[in-house]
Amino acid sequence: MRLIVASELDNLPETALHSKFYRVQQELAFTEPATTERANALASLENINRAIITRRVKGPGF
């Protein structure tokens, strides 16, 4: 799995972020411990989670 960076997530709506988070979680389940693929999945989940939190803190764009 490739790393999903924060800049890729900037313009996505929260629903798309949740979908992406779920998909990466599913892929994580099939990774082997101590592999680059697993590290990328974990880092991607962290980036997606931060993007979701950022959207919630900002609230709707009035």
Description:
- Helices cover 68% and strands 0% of the residues.
- With 62 residues, it is mostly helical.
- The protein has one domain (4-56).
- Helix 2 (14-28) packs antiparallel against helix 3 (36-58).
Brief synopsis:
The chain is mainly alpha-helical and about 60 residues long. The chain is built from three helices and no strands. It has one domain.
Helix content: 55-70%
Instruction: Using the alpha-carbon principal axes, give the shape.
Output: elongated
Radius of gyration: 12 Å
User: Which residues form runs of ≥5 with pLDDT under 50?
Assistant: none
The fraction of residues in strands falls at under 5%
How many domains make up the coordinates?
1
Order of helices and strands: HHH
Helix/strand/pairing category: mainly alpha
Largest sheet geometry = none
Number of helical segments with 4 or more residues: 3
Number of strands: 0
The whole-number mean of residue pLDDT values reads 94
Topology diagram in text:
Blueprint (H helix, E strand, L loop, with lengths): L5 H4 L4 H15 L7 H23 L4
Helix pairs in contact: 2-3
Short key terms for the protein model shown above:
62 residues, 0% strand
